[in-house]
Specification:
Strand order of the largest sheet: 2-3-1-4
Structural class: alpha+beta
Number of helices: 10
Distance between the termini: 29 Å
Radius of gyration: 31 Å
Number of domains: 2
Helix content: over 70%
Strand content: 5-15%
Shape: elongated
Length: 304
C-alpha cells in the first residue's frame, strides 16, 4: 500500500514537472478515444437502422374465401412452431380488416368505387429472425395443409408476399455493414494504440536520465516502473474521461437537436446499457494503452 501511494505521488510530481509532455499524451489519448467512441456511436445508430428495417420484414399469406376454420387454426399453430417465427406475431387479418386497411392507405373514394370486397383474408407473420424468411416460406409450402387454406394452390408463390426480390439482398447488405463496422473499430483501436504508445514512449524517453540514475542507486525494476505505469494510467483515465464526457454531451444534447431539426427518422433512442458499454470499452482501451505503453517504453531503459 505504501508503494502505491509513492507511485501516485511520483506520478503526479512527474506530471507537473513535465506538464507539456503529459498534456500531449492526454490530448492524444483523448482525441484517439474520441474518434473511436464517435465511430462506435455511429455504428450503433447504423445497427439500430438495420434492426429497424429488418423488423419490417414479414410474410403475408393470402387465404381462400372458403377456408375451413379448423384447417386455418391448425395452419396457424403449425406456423408458430417454425424456427425464426415470432410465436405471438402470427395474426389473422379478415377480409373486412384488409379492406379497412386499404381504405386508410388509398382513401375512401377508391374503396367506395369497388364492387364488393375483392381483397382476400390473410395471415401476417412477424419474424423473430429475419434471415430465416426464405426458410420459413419453404417450410410453410411443404406443409400438407397449406394447399387447403391458400387462395392460389395452383400457383403457390402468388399466395405469399414477403419481398423476396429484395429481402436476401437487404440481409446481405446488413451483414456486410456489420462486418465493415467491426473491422473499422478494430483498425481504429490498433492505430490509436500505436499512436498513443509512441507519444508515451517519447515522454519517457525525455526522462531516460532519471531512470538511469535510479538504476545506479540500486532501485528495483518494479520500483522504477511503478510511477510511470501509474502516470500512464492517470493520463489514460483523464483522456478517456474527456472522451466519454464529450460523447455523453453529444448523445444527450447535440444529436437530439439534430434529430428534431433535420433527421427525424434517425434512431437515437440509446439505452443506458448501450452508452455504458461504449464508455466501459473506451475506459478499458485507454487504460490498456496507457499501462502497456508505459510498461514497454520503460522496459527498454531497464534492460541491462
Amino acid at each position: 500500500m505504501r508503494n502505491i501511494w509513492h507511485f501516485i505521488r511520483e506520478a503526479l510530481s512527474n506530471s507537473k514537472k513535465n506538464f507539456s509532455t503529459t498534456l500531449g499524451a492526454i490530448v492524444t489519448i483523448f482525441l484517439s478515444l474520441l474518434i473511436i467512441g464517435v465511430f462506435m456511436v455511429f455504428s450503433l445508430i447504423i445497427e439500430k437502422l438495420i434492426v429497424q428495417v429488418e423488423s419490417d420484414i414479414n410474410i403475408t399469406i393470402f387465404l381462400a374465401d372458403d377456408v375451413n376454420a379448423e384447417d386455418l387454426a391448425a395452419f396457424q399453430d403449425y406456423i408458430r412452431t417454425l424456427p425464426g417465427v415470432d410465436k405471438d406475431g402470427v395474426l389473422y387479418v379478415s377480409k373486412e380488416d384488409a379492406l379497412e386497411k386499404f381504405r386508410e392507405q388509398a382513401g375512401s373514394e377508391i374503396v367506395d368505387a369497388l364492387d364488393g370486397n375483392p381483397l382476400p383474408a390473410s395471415i401476417e407473420i412477424k419474424l423473430s429472425d429475419p434471415e430465416q424468411v426464405q426458410a420459413v416460406v419453404d417450410e410453410i409450402i411443404l406443409y400438407p395443409g397449406t394447399m387447403t387454406v391458400i387462395d392460389r394452390p395452383d400457383n403457390q408463390s402468388e399466395s405469399f408476399r414477403y419481398g423476396e426480390e429484395y429481402v436476401e439482398r437487404l440481409i446481405d447488405i446488413a451483414n456486410i455493414i456489420r462486418t465493415i463496422s467491426l473491422a473499422l473499430i478494430v483498425l481504429l483501436v490498433v492505430v490509436a494504440l500505436i499512436f498513443i504508445n509512441n507519444t508515451i514512449r517519447l515522454a519517457i524517453l525525455a526522462r531516460r536520465k532519471e531512470i538511469a540514475i535510479m538504476r545506479l542507486v540500486g532501485a528495483s525494476n518494479g520500483f522504477i516502473r511503478g510511477p510511470y505505469l501509474m502516470e500512464g494510467a492517470l493520463q489514460a483515465a483523464i483522456g478517456a474521461g474527456l472522451a466519454i464526457g464529450t460523447i455523453s454531451f453529444a448523445c444527450g444534447y447535440l444529436l437530439p437537436k439534430i434529430q428534431e431539426s433535420t433527421i427525424r427518422w434517425l434512431p437515437l433512442d440509446f439505452t443506458s446499457l448501450d452508452l455504458g458499454l461504449i464508455y466501459l470499452i473506451l475506459l478499458g482501451v485507454g487504460l490498456i494503452i496507457g499501462l502497456f505503453g508505459s510498461f514497454f517504453s520503460v522496459r527498454r531503459h531497464l534492460k541491462v
